[in-house]
Amino acid sequence: MKYLIIIFSVIFLIGCNSNEMVEVSFSEKQDVLFEEYVIPFQFFPRTIEVVGLGDSLTQGVGDELKQEGYLGRLQQHFSQYKGIEDVSLTNTAKRGRRSDQLLKILKDGEIDHQIRKANLITITIGGNDIMKVVKKDLFNLKVEAFEKELGKFERNYKKIIQEIREVNSTAPIIVVGLYNPITIVTDEKSEFDHILNDWNTVIEETASNDRNACFVPIDQLFMTNSNLVYHTDFFHPNSKGYKLVIEEIVESMQDCGLIDADKRELLF
């Protein structure tokens, strides 16, 4: 109510000082113009809805501080931004989920309501697709097996983005890449690094084909465990690892023009 009073007061004052007609346009994402006086949209406190999709990385597995991994930290981070009254978080991610399983959930419309109301969507998927190959041919791993699965993954990923866009055509999608957990054992380069690069390339290219998606590479954060970024399961990040992930997300979102981290402002 107090914001309406301010707006009507400004209109009244302008009306007293000018005989010209003033056109007023209200929009949640546009500034309100009163001739030369500009009220930025950040002036109106708003609640943003963040929805997480995917696997254990989005679920926050391994976070010993119980802060919901990178997604919970992203919620805390955006809560401090200008014009943000609250950040509502919906985490639909599940440990062990593969791309075909996420695609089925989207096709069945199980989370349409959450996606439709989202102002921001994050995705981590693909790690379990790779592990499916590893578990199937653990003692006889061949590059060809990963390449075959990569073709399926690429088709699934493209359809995942399409399914999201059919429900929500405007929300930015934060697409988080994959990392190599084998670095916990050895720092040496291996053939698996090349395999992972191919999978990350597919994720990045898929994101680039959506005008409002932002790819976040995180493989460089886990090239070594010298900084103790892994959980005791030697696979998932710990709280320190998730802190690095959120920092990378914020940096990538700034590069994608979605936020102004210095001014603490959302640009979507």
Describe the structure.
- The protein is an alpha/beta fold and 268 residues long.
- The protein folds into 2 domains: 4-38, no CATH class; 45-266, SGNH hydrolase (Rossmann fold), CATH 3.40.50.
- It is 43% helix and 15% strand.
- It contains 9 helices and 9 strands.
- The strands form 3 sheets. A 5-stranded parallel β-sheet has the order 4-3-5-6-7, with helices on both faces.
- Helix 7 runs parallel beside helix 8 (191-208).
- The radius of gyration is 22 Å and the shape is globular.
State the shape: globular
**SSE order, one letter for each helix or strand:** HEEEHHEHHEHHEHEHEE
The count of DSSP E runs of length 2 or more, i.e. the number of strands, is: 9
The Rg value, from CA coordinates, equals 22 Å
CATH architecture of the largest domain: 3-Layer(aba) Sandwich
* Spatial order of the strands forming the largest sheet: 4-3-5-6-7
- Uncertain runs with pLDDT below 50, 5 residues or more? 1-29
Which percent range fits the helix content? 40-55%
- Roughly what fraction of the amino acids lie in strands? 5-15%
Calculate the mean pLDDT score and round it. 86
- Tally of separate helices: 9
Distance between the termini: 24 Å
Q: CATH homologous superfamily name of the largest domain?
A: SGNH hydrolase
